[in-house]
Write a structure and sequence with these properties.
42% of the residues lie in helices and 27% in strands. The protein has 8 helices and 9 strands. The longest helix is centred in the first third of the chain and has 23 residues. This is Nuclease-like protein.
């Protein structure tokens, strides 16, 4: 019995070590600097990690940017997905319950199972303001390339979402791959994607894992 317990502990330890190794070598880890522990303990970081994994499945030339904090802007941008079909500014929403909203309303609503109704700022209006800030940062890029995406997690249900603009979409995270399968127009070359990425990348706020921060502090002391 003791050997069986020991084997189980070793097996779990190996799985844990492999999971850490896979995460540390993931695109999301390298881009954001978020630690494996933060992904496991912070639901919003975990949601962004899942967003990155879903976008990685999209075909075509692309680049990802997370946590963009543009100068002289009050908005922090969750994600920008540079794809050969355009520039997708993503507002990530980790929400449960039933979601109601119109792209022209000031507030949207979230209805929970306990009957509670929460109001929250219209994520499309938020994203419109964020896109305006991106345009200011890279004014040489054509305005028709921008697309606003509001991405919710799969735990919510869209009860009544009304959209009136062609450059706006609201979808769940697992719908991303199918969404991009229909984006067949080639608007950006690989070199153009790389160029835009290089201009926005300096504004990314990269988290420093605690273990690396501690090592840096020891080196400086």
């Amino acid at each position: 019995m003791a050997m069986l317990v020991l084997f189980f502990i070793v097996f779990i330890g190996i799985l844990f070590a492999v999971s850490i190794y896979v995460y540390d070598n993931s695109q999301f880890s390298k881009i954001t600097g978020h630690s494996f522990i933060s992904v496991q303990t912070n639901k919003e970081v975990r949601f962004l990690y899942k967003l990155a994994k879903n976008l990685k499945k999209v075909d075509g030339d692309n680049q990802l940017l997370f946590n963009i904090d543009l100068p002289q802007s009050e908005w922090k941008i969750d994600c920008i997905f540079l794809h050969e079909s355009g520039i997708y500014v993503i507002n990530a929403k980790y929400s449960s319950g039933w979601i109601y909203g119109d792209d022209q309303d000031i507030k949207w609503a979230q209805a929970l199972e306990n009957g509670k109704m929460n109001k929250f700022p219209n994520p499309i209006i938020e994203n419109k303001l964020k896109i305006q800030e991106v345009k200011k940062a890279i004014p040489e890029v054509r305005e028709d390339l921008y697309q606003s995406l509001v991405v919710f997690n799969n735990d919510c249900s869209f009860k009544k979402i009304e959209l009136h603009s062609e450059d706006v979409d609201v979808l769940k995270i697992d719908e991303l791959k199918a969404f991009f399968e229909n984006r067949i127009d080639s608007a950006l070359t690989k070199n153009e994607i790389i160029s835009i990425h290089s201009k926005i990348e300096p504004y990314m706020v990269k988290k420093q894992p605690k273990e690396k921060a501690a090592l840096k502090d020891e080196t400086l002391s």
